[in-house]
Design a protein that fits this description.
The structure holds two protein chains of two kinds. Chain A is built from six helices and two strands. The longest helix of chain A has about 35 residues. The mean pLDDT of chain A is about 85. Chain B contains four helices and twelve strands. Chain B has a six-stranded antiparallel beta barrel. The longest helix of chain B is centred in the N-terminal third of the chain and has 36 residues. Classes of the chains: A mainly alpha, B alpha+beta.
Chain lengths: ~190, ~290
């Protein structure tokens, strides 16, 4: 995998995530799509397993760095690690399943973005639920957010998976340097 | 890989109160992505404006001017009340704060959060621009309240919009036509872009034997001592609906909607106190 190209694509996707994310939310609620989840899924579907896992970890780490949460004492907090771990597990799910999938098919991107998103969001919820056991000052109950998080994953898969498949498949994939012989080929 | 995962595990279970040192890394990451996120947000605002567009430019300007004058009038009214209290306080020997002078700074919103559960906004203005935590507030065109600054970095600051689910309750005043004193209300964000709260109806008096009627479209302004003085009398929104109250109190409930979708603005006007220490000390108790 060409890491330089991956870095540029990551930069562009984070720009889209932070810039357009709010507009694409459903109403004024907390259900919104994630460009990063689609990029992670795309890389996990095509890159070698080790590179895909590293990419998921880096994407999750960067997502954590651009995430601020309200603290119950009135300030803001900078959570680190939850999204990174969630994305690594999501990527491992895709890597395990991709042998039986058609990696280039749009439905694969849609379905796997949703599935990996579910895994990521469940991990984030579990971590924050555990943190509440020792009185972490996070203002909102993580379990209350789980429904919205899962719907956000579904939304990411259905909307962005569909919209981004074409540019990812024909513009990004040729320059990403993915190996030609992969287990993602249809058997 | 094992070391990286172990590190992430360690961070994942670290309480948020110990992660303040990450604010620099957060700011750096936000600034790195800003060259794309900022224009994208501007395009998104252009495609889907946070407030309905008024086609007649002259009418829009007049409406804007009218809002500004109304806010100014309310601030003078509030200042009048404050001066009366000041006289009373001076007569009783209590220490009081002087009036807070503010300056306005227009800055772009460079992005939201990567996590859908968080509604905080990042604005390109930080300590270098004089932005201060707790005492600086963000507005749209200097009138509509967006939220208070929750954290300040060297070049960016973080704002919590008043309509975000996690925002604490806000004490507001409903301004009614022909009534000198506004009605008090304690508003809670609902999560759909509105705020909802019960209204304190004053007891009947010989001058006002019947309870005042809350008209739709009435302005609701901030009148909350927890907020900095720089934010008092700014517009929270307009009354969109009035519901009959339930329970023993039976107070009517108002649903208030800001005049713009505050979570989707691409630019804010920051009201920065010229003397932040004085402004901060005016906050009695909690935080907005």
């Amino acid at each position: 995998m060409n890491w330089l190209v991956a870095a540029v694509i990551t930069w562009a996707f984070f720009g889209l995530e932070l810039g357009l994310g709010e507009m694409l939310r459903i109403g004024e609620g907390d259900i919104g799509p994630s460009f990063i989840a689609v990029l992670m899924t795309f890389i996990a579907l095509h890159a070698p397993a080790k590179s895909a896992t590293w990419a998921a970890l880096i994407l999750g780490f960067l997502a954590d760095l651009t995430w601020t949460i309200e603290r119950s004492d009135g300030g803001v907090g900078y959570p680190l690690g939850a999204t990174a771990l969630g994305m690594v597990l999501g990527a491992r799910l895709i890597i395990a399943a991709r042998g039986s999938l058609r990696g280039d098919h749009p439905l694969t991107l849609i379905f796997m973005t949703t599935a990996a998103g579910f895994v990521t969001q469940i991990v984030i919820t579990a971590i924050f639920s555990f943190r509440q056991l020792y009185g972490d000052a996070v203002i909102r109950s993580p379990t209350e957010q789980l429904g919205e998080r899962l719907l956000s994953s579904l939304y990411s898969g259905l909307l962005l998976g569909l919209v981004l498949w074409l540019p990812l498949r024909f513009l990004v994939q040729p320059i990403m340097g993915f190996p030609a012989d992969r287990s993602t080929r249809p058997r | 890989m094992t070391i990286a995962i172990t590190l992430m595990l360690g961070f994942a279970f670290t309480p948020v109160r110990y992660t303040n040192w990450l604010s620099g890394a957060h700011e750096l990451a936000t600034n790195i992505f800003a060259p794309i996120s900022q224009p994208m947000r501007a395009v998104a605002t252009w495609l889907n404006p946070p407030a309905p567009e008024i086609r007649d430019r002259e009418l829009a300007d007049l409406q804007e001017e009218s809002k500004n004058w109304k806010t100014l009038a309310r601030q003078f009214e509030s200042e009048n009340r404050r001066l009366r209290d000041l006289v009373a306080d001076l007569q009783s020997g209590r220490r009081v704060e002087p009036r807070i002078a503010v300056r306005y700074l227009s800055r772009p919103v460079i992005g939201a959060q990567s996590d859908p559960g968080s509604a905080l906004l990042t604005v390109r203005a930080g300590e270098g621009s004089g932005v201060t935590e707790r005492s600086t507030v963000a507005t749209v065109r200097g009138v509509q309240l967006v939220g208070a600054v929750k954290a300040v970095g060297a070049r960016t600051c973080t704002i919590q919009p008043i309509t975000s689910d996690d925002h604490p309750q806000i004490r507001g005043a409903i301004v009614l036509e022909g009534r000198e004193l506004p009605l008090e209300t304690l508003l809670t964000p609902v999560g759909d872009g509105t705020l909802r709260g019960g209204v304190e109806i004053p007891a009947p008096t010989p001058d006002e034997p019947t309870p005042p009627e809350i008209t739709l479209g009435s302005e609701v302004v901030l009148a909350d001592d927890v907020w900095p003085q720089t934010a008092q009398q700014l517009l929270i929104g307009l009354v969109e609906r009035v519901e009959a109250g339930s329970g023993d109190a039976g107070r009517p409930i108002v649903i208030v909607r800001p005049t713009v979708r505050v979570r989707r603005v691409s630019e804010v006007v920051l009201r920065i106190p010229l003397d932040p220490d004085t402004a901060s000390s005016s906050i009695s108790g909690g935080r907005p």
